[in-house]
Amino acid sequence: MTNRWRDRWSSRLTKPSPSVPPHKGLPLPARRAIYWGPGEPLISLIGMRRPTGKRPIRSRRNAITRLCLGLFLTGYALTVAAAPLLKSFSASFSVSRGVIPLGSLDLKFTLGEAGDYRYLAYTQPGLITGWFSGDEITEESQGRLVPGGVVSEHYRYNETNDQDDNVEVRFDWPARKAYTTSDGITWAQAIGPDTQDRLSQQLMVRLQLAEGRDELSYQVADGGKLKRYHFKVVGEEPVDTPYGRLPCLKVRRSKESRPPDYTIWFAPKLDYLPVRIEREKDGNHYHMVLDELEGLEGE
User: What is the pTM of this model?
Assistant: First the structure.
């Protein structure tokens, strides 16, 4: 791991999670955000409206909030044999609009011997966008791997410059409910057996692509609501990466009944990690590309 990664992650891994009400959920930050989070797959470009829950979450000016690879949404039906695909890793991505750099996204996934996992996503604005907003975003998903797939137990969203926008979601599986807390207010929503959070969904997409499935559909607890995301494999294409030219599955993602809005390239040789994500919006071309990787085959 590079010194940059070591310093960044050590500061986050040694800090205890802030004490929050028993149930917290995920807000969608900034109307000027770029996210591609699980619920809002990668690169939700600037100017995008954020999802609303029973309680609206305030909009913000963040220029590049959360590129959290949200684009790989969740599911819940893989086999036990697919579980070894998920290994601990760290990855760094750069995000840009055309030739203009917008910032970076760092991911760190840690898997314990008992099947418990911790998945962190850290978004940092670049120099240009930092002039408008210096906000840094940290998202965290904790849960476990089971024979049926990935079970999220806790999701946390933390924004450095505005604590009022921090959110937490806790899953009560026996009661089949997700409790979302934002700005001191908690509300509940009924969930199905395949429900994921904005980060855990990414793991499910990788697992099910590895099974050979070419159409995926997941329910995600996102912004206080449950949303349905669809992924469809539309072909295969090679993509240039820091680890050579890799064959990839080309996948289109759509939300609810809307037309596809994201294109994602997953590399089987890197355990189906996405290596490139693209989106066209309002005449602008946004993309996120893999820069560095540690812990997966092919590095």
Answer: 0.73
